[in-house]
Amino acid sequence: MPEQTIKAIQKWLDEHQAELLENYQKLLQIPSVESEAAPNAPFGQANREALDMALGLGKKWGMEVTDLEGFCGYAEYGSGEKMIGIFGHLDVVPVGPGWKYDPFSATIDNGYVYARGAIDDKGPTIAAFYAARAIKEVVGDPGARIRTVFGCDEESGFECIHRYTKTEEAPTYGIAPDAGWPLIHAEKGIAGLVTDVKFITGGITIKSLTGGQRSNIVIDHAVGELVVLDAARPEIEEKLAKNWDANLTYAWNGNILTVDAKGKAAHGAWPFGGDNAATRVLRFWMEIAPADQKTQFEQLFEMAHVAGDGLGIHGSDDLTDLTANLGVAETTADSLRFTYSVRYPVTWKGENVRAMCEKHLAGLEITASVYSFTDSKPLYFPLEHPLVKTVVDAYEAETGLKKTPGVMGGGTYARAVPNTVAIGTGWDGDGEAHQTDERCKIEHIFKMSKIYARILYKLTQA
User: Fold this and answer.
1) In Å, what is the CA distance from 348 to each residue of 268, 315, 319?
2) What is the pLDDT of residues 109-128, one digit of tens each?
3) Pick from 373, 391, 381: which is nearest to 128 by CA?
4) Which is catalytic among the residues 76, 91, 178, 275?
5) What is the pTM of this model?
């Protein structure tokens, strides 16, 4: 009987594909990047609009809806002590340049929907919401409550989900559709590390370096300025003539040398998948630096290393290793301020990462220090955990594939909500999160909804 019920639920989803696609596109067309707070809209009016749309659908479908002052909201149905939670987010990262289509047009091309949020995380969220609805329409009350939570600040601080956990019930079992298949059983610790580096002075003196939007995005454009003394200019001019970086240009304005670098954005959890424009500027500075400043500029360049070598924090455990994404470069009155998203191994502690960095920076020739440090602790579920096993079994039943749960550097709601794991989204061909031309195949949205429906129904019966 359970298998017959699941097939009936999935049949309902097949019959409502056009409706799912329509609502998917409507949700994507809301530009829900964090913006200035407004009444009942702490993350901006567009996020409020996206939340209103989701809650409006829940109300229309006969669910009980709750709005937590615009931080987040949820739609719920069913009865009983057991509560199955779905934790998705409606906010998106900034779009950046170079898109094939308007990133909030939800344009369909060759079977794909192009939009910011297509795969992270509006697509999986709406697919899971429809899976929950399908169970309601086919089964009625499954003997447990199914609650779909819609966050509005996942990309820039988790304030939404922290607001939820302050007053709302933890799920018996929770899933966050925002990761790799079949699920992620361990998430690295995430540290927000900010360093200050005093301007290097001499034959060339740092004036500024700016680039980046968020700590969790690889910088795709950066501009740096140096003041060059007349005595050093002939040597600098000679080195500039040998410049080899095709993604970098420079120009003189008196004694000011301005460098403009282009890179490639990527998710900050996988910085090696992008091309950091600020790193290009720092390398360029190192290459042209006079001999007596070479070591200083080399140390500055190494601070941008994606493995954290130049911060003194590189390392690994049996599950994974550390990465450090330089996501924002800013200029203060007398220093460069670098903001990193550090993803550290599951068995490490954040305070040790900070201590390692402080010790390393203190031994450098340049004057560098830790300006601030925040920490989100790692997440770990054993492979034999019943939630893990249920998700794995459902994935295998739907796909016929056996796949080991993974470990990732990305941070999801699972790390903030008890009894919750992050589960898979998308497949090969779908655009990567946080990158230009993010996209998702329409067939994949439907496929996800069927897998989510099996997972959710199985959890209600567990």
Assistant:
1) 19, 10, 11
2) 999 999 999 999 999 999 99
3) 391
4) 91
5) 0.77
How many Cα atoms sit within 13 Å of 25 on the Cβ side?
A: 16
Query: Does residue 188 register a pLDDT over 70?
Result: yes
Place of tokens 């509006």: 122
* Integer Cα distance of 271 and 280 in angstroms: 14
Mean pLDDT for the stretch of residues 286-292 = 96
- Exposed (0-12), middle (13-18) or buried (19+): which is 389, by Cβ within 10 Å? middle
> What would the two tokens of residue 458 be?
């199985």
Counting residues of the chain whose pLDDT is more than 90, the rounded percentage is 94
Angstrom distance (rounded) from CA 35 to CA 362: 37
What is d(CA 90, CA 121) in angstroms, rounded to the nearest whole number? 6
Please indicate whether residue 64 is annotated as part of the active site.
no
Confidence class of residue 96 from pLDDT cuts 50, 70 and 90?
confident
Q: How confident is the model at residue 1 (pLDDT cuts 50, 70, 90)?
A: low
CA–CA distance, 319 with 350 (Å, rounded to integer): 17
- Known active-site residue 91: yes
Determine how many CB atoms are found less than 10 A away from the CB of residue 370. Answer: 16
Q: Which of 34, 120, 121, 154 is catalytic?
A: 154
**Which residues are CB-contacts of 238 (< 8 A; sequence separation ≥ 6)?**
none
